[in-house]
Amino acid sequence: MLAGLDLELPLVAIADPALLRRRAEALGQPLVLRHWQGECEPAGPHALWYQPVPLATTEEPGVLDSANAPYVLACLDAAIEGCQAGRFSALVTGPVHKGVINDAGIPFSGHTEYLAERSGGAHPVMMLATEGLRVALATTHLPLAEVPGAITQERLERVVRILAHDLKERFRIREPRILVCGLNPHAGEGGHLGREEVEVIEPVLERLRTEGMDLEGPLPADTTFTPPRLSEADAVLAMYHDQGLPVLKHLGFGQAVNITLGLPFVRTSVDHGTACERAGSGDIDSGSLLTALRAAAELADPDQAIS
Question: What's the domain count of the chain?
């Protein structure tokens, strides 16, 4: 099912085992399911550990069903609880369809926000990474009209601190260099194209530079992602979702990983959405999932299981 995966670690699927069997059979894939009871060895060839969570109703590939929305969140809850309890050392998620969860009457804006809520109010920072580029976000899944008001000095300082801390602790970069984008075109042109750079971003960066942080910006976003600048940077901090992620996905779509910083456990995910039109077809590219699994293994304790 995960051809090419060379991790010598136990992987635990949080799922309904009947669903896993049906999907494997439909795709003609050999699969041996083993009920996970805390084992710390790989499940074996064509085998997968699982921790059961029951579906509400039988799935139909590619067809959204709000009746199973609670199942999706129950799987997440089981994985989060396992990470918090120390049974798992990392969480790897696939994409979820936010709309169908909301259609079920459950407010849901995304994995990142949900993980924060379930982790005791942690402040998550969304970062995507591919070969040669890491892009973190000051804001995540917000309507564009709400972005300027969300970028406060308090929020930005917290994001920069978490980004710098995790680059040091999780990625072992001794003195991370971070490029910080402005919010407005041309980084506000000294206040003539917007005041956020002058009144919010620059004061925060100046304050953190006095603590020894290596921060460059606020920079015009349209020239931040050029090879000369990126060659000397460990990460770029973009102000909003579609300012930074289109560049990264153009560079490494299908080979990128979504990493949530600021959590008490490692969480990685794929760089793409649900692609419901391909569900059940076998016409998929598992590259980003494999990248997410490998990244989780590198960031996590290899003596524990990954869910």
Answer: 2
Q: Which residues contact 228 (CB under 8 A, 6 or more apart)?
A: none
pLDDT of residue 162: 97
Angle at 131 between CA 144 and CA 124, to 5 degrees: 45
**Regions of the chain with pLDDT less than 70:** 1-8, 301-307
Helix (H, G, I), strand (E, B) or coil at 235: strand
The residue count for the chain: 307
pLDDT digits (tens, 9 = 90+) for 202-250: 999 999 999 999 999 999 999 999 999 999 899 999 999 999 999 999 9
**pTM given for the model:** 0.85
Same domain, 72 and 17: yes
- Quick one: CA torsion of 141, 277, 291, 80, rounded to 10 degrees? 60
* Prior bond of 203 cis (ω within 30°): no
Q: Which two tokens stand for residue 234?
A: 């460990």
- Cα–Cα nearest to 264, from 40, 51, 89, 128: 89
Whether residue 25 is found in the same domain as residue 67: yes
Q: How far apart are CA 60 and CA 100, in angstroms?
A: 14
Answer yes or no: are the C-beta atoms of 189 and 174 closer than 8 Å: no
Residue whose tokens read 């901090």: 237
d(CA 266, CA 91): 6
Per DSSP, 269 falls in state: E
Tell me the three state secondary structure of residue 61: coil
Same domain, 3 and 97: yes
Q: Are 306 and 296 in contact (CB under 8 A)?
A: yes
Q: How many CA atoms lie within 13 A of 228 on its CB side?
A: 1
206 phi, psi to nearest 5 deg: -60, -45
Question: Which residues form the domain of 237?
Answer: 124-257
238 and 256 Cβ atoms separated by less than 8 Å: no
Helix axes 202-209, 153-169, angle to 10 degrees: 40
Residue 202: Cβ-neighbour burial (10 angstroms; 0-12, 13-18, 19+): middle
